[in-house]
Specification:
There is one protein chain. The chain has 332 residues and is of the alpha+beta class. The chain has a domain of 81 residues: Orthogonal Bundle (DNA polymerase, domain 1). Helices cover 46% and strands 8% of the residues. The chain has 14 helices and six strands. It has a four-stranded antiparallel β-sheet, with no helix packed on it. The protein has a two-stranded antiparallel ribbon with strand order 5-6. Helix 3 packs antiparallel against helix 4 and helix 6 runs antiparallel to helix 7. The chain is globular.
């Protein structure tokens, strides 16, 4: 199997966190095939693997997630349509859940003692980022390098005075790697606090970043990650750690736990409810299809009140009117 070529191909299409997960699932699939002496490039092997996961009692969502990781390899080798014929358990559309805005801000305030978690939650709420997008941000995706100062003192990118950040698209199209979108001062301040807390950027150590500033993002040293973690093999803060911290904050506040991704749902609902502009919401949230953005409309019923025009009764224009049922005229 050309796994290395597949990973290089994925880098043009998927975010780093997605590639990490896909690679782990591919390793599971290859181990399964080796244990059963199956050819991993045969569709029949994928079919047997899916059946094996069903026997183990994995949920339909988990099975489909792992299946699509392997299916992407078959797409890479030009056999994507073949593998999609494999029968898989159906996944019901899950109901979208959100935090109330006041709950979200209370969670962020409560996380103030941990600058990393506070900055991550702030990015999820204000910029509506996916967790993987937030964790794989580089320092210069938010702040402009100024090598005469430490990173915590760099200035943000701005457009007409509004701070902006570069967000790596999870599913990039050919030739489009980044999206520039507006942010808020709360994000910039949270990011600076994170950089001030980074021990690896104390003293003059941050100057080492300058040597690799012109390298492609995938070739840079891990300390370029905004949420760098020397203890993680990925090089950035572990997503499970974010979920664990958020669960603890929810327990302290006495509210139901919802995953970090629900902060993105909260932001999407807020944008649609306040503006009613689905096209702007689609671009800001980086949805490839407006149908995905439309899923949030039912959570913002005030949109209907604000945007749907009233049916005005026309003034009487004569003594005769047409009967719409019979098509005949009648006299009053």
């Amino acid at each position: 199997m050309d796994v290395e070529g597949w990973i290089s191909w994925l880098r043009r299409k998927k975010a780093p966190t997605t590639i990490y997960v896909y690679t782990a699932y591919m390793r599971k699939y290859i181990d399964f095939c080796e244990a059963r002496r199956l050819d991993p490039e045969r569709v029949e092997s994928v079919d047997e693997w899916v059946g094996h996961m069903q026997k183990k009692g994995l949920t339909p969502a988990t099975i489909n997630t792992q299946f699509y990781a392997v299916a992407s390899y078959f797409t890479y080798i030009g056999r994507g349509q073949e593998v999609l014929r494999v029968v898989r358990p159906s996944v019901k559309q899950r109901r979208i859940e959100i935090y109330q805005l006041d709950e979200a801000w209370r969670l962020i305030d409560l996380a103030g003692t941990n600058p990393h978690i506070k900055a991550i939650l702030t990015l999820l709420l204000i910029n509506g980022l996916r967790l993987g997008e937030a964790l794989t941000l580089h320092i210069d995706d938010i702040l402009q390098p100024n090598w005469s100062r430490p990173p915590s003192e760099w200035e943000p990118y701005t457009i007409e005075g509004t701070p902006c950040i570069y967000v790596t698209r999870e599913k990039v199209r050919e030739g489009i790697d980044f999206g520039l979108e507006p942010t808020q001062e709360e994000v910039i301040e949270a990011v600076r606090n994170t950089l001030r807390a980074r021990e690896d950027l104390q003293g003059g150590a941050w100057r080492e970043l300058k040597r690799s500033v012109n390298l492609p993002k995938e070739d840079r040293p891990h300390r370029w990650y905004l949420f760098y973690s020397p203890h993680s093999p990925r090089g950035y803060y572990d997503p499970s750690g974010v979920r664990k911290h958020l669960g603890r904050l929810c327990r302290i506040l006495g509210i139901p736990y919802r995953s970090p991704h629900k902060l993105r749902h909260t932001r999407a609902t807020h944008i649609i409810a306040e503006t009613g502009d689905l096209a702007a919401a689609q671009q800001f949230l980086r949805h490839r299809s407006i149908a995905t953005t439309m899923r949030y409309v039912h959570l913002a019923p005030q949109l209907l009140i604000k945007k749907i025009p009233k049916v005005e009764r026309p003034e009487a224009s004569g003594s005769e009117e047409k009967d719409i049922n019979s098509g005949e005229e009648k006299e009053e």
